[in-house]
Amino acid sequence: MGRALAAEPNNALAHAVAALSAVRTGDADGARAALERALAADPNLFQAHALLSLVSLAEADTDAADAAARRAVALAPASALAHASLATTAFFTGDARTAEAETALALEANPNSVAAHLVRADLRVAQGELTDAFRAAGLAVALDPRCAPGYSALGMIALAQNDLATAERCFDRALELSPSLVAARTGMGVTYARQGKLAQAMEMQKAAIALDSSSAATRHNLGAIHLAQGRLEEAVEAFQEAARLQPDWAMPHANLAIAYLDLNRFAEAVQEGELAVRLGDDSPRTHTYLGRVYLEQNRVNKAWASLRRAVDRDPTFALAHFQLAEVYLRLGRSRDARREQLEALALQPAAALETRDYARTEARVELGSLNAGIRTDGALDHGRTSYFASAERQIDSWDRPHSQWTRTSTQG
């Protein structure tokens, strides 16, 4: 490639391929510089605009990413790559409708588009359709066996299904193919944490942060591991940083509430728990811990309301029943308390242990992302785990009208 550029310094296509190489090695600055040269040589090279959209996502410039992707579509309306790039941008900005439409157009243009199948997997996880998501990610890997983001996506889906053995195999393969893939490191860290391998989980999360220091999800996961280890001050620091990086994400605030509860800092725990709910966290877990904090403050009626909400959301969440039993005892309703205790014991015997350690073990370690976008609760996470490290999936091979374009894998 270097010889080609030396021989033809104005070869836009060669500069675009150089940009692709920079993407694969995680060199955002190098990719942008190569794309600037490519577009200076040929402002209408749609592949360069498509790749520019992904580099812009890596830089958290969603407006520029959207503009570049739309320019690619305008230049090549029949290109699967162009539509897949716009679908990716739409997904990461929370525009699920556009992401669905553009993914469909990409697959209509090329049913074997690896990038489009991966965006479809992202979308299906966000909708809670894990079987369809697994199928889409599996197709991507079948089409391109060296597609690291595809294996990472499969790992995230397996993790959401609590299939830890499959998740570990998938993340291991993804990291073998692409050691700089932050989503895979994040997922492997969560897998280790769920297996009780907290030292390995910590090492993996720190490596992910080193690759992408602006990722809210990786900071959050680090905090969750600290929380599981009982290192509460470190957990608070990590959750606060995650919340700073992504203020509209509820989960760091929900876990801050747990950390503050364990530190007996009840006013701060209430503040963070209520903020998590305002930001859209309606999970039984968060309502349960918020109810527990209210109980510590002797706000029994508010505790009852929060815990009833938790039970209504998930009647099988044992800890909510156990905490509700304590509320009923405070209210003098011993029969109701006994009923809730028996329900908790039937669901999970460990719920009989009213300890902070039990509460801590319930803290959910966030998945980080399936390409920075997916949480186990099926919601979009717009935090940037690593658009850039995952961008290679988009351009692994391009729609190529030029015979000199060297194919690297399945046409995308």
From TrEMBL:
Q: Which key words are in the record?
A: Glycosyltransferase, Repeat, TPR repeat, Transferase
> Part of which pathway?
Protein modification; protein glycosylation
Q: Does the keyword Zinc apply?
A: no
User: Which is an annotated Pfam family here?
Assistant: TPR_8
Start-end of each TPR repeat: 148-181, 216-249, 284-317
Q: Name one GO molecular function term.
A: glycosyltransferase activity
Its protein name is Tetratricopeptide repeat protein
Give the organism, scientific name.
Eiseniibacteriota bacterium
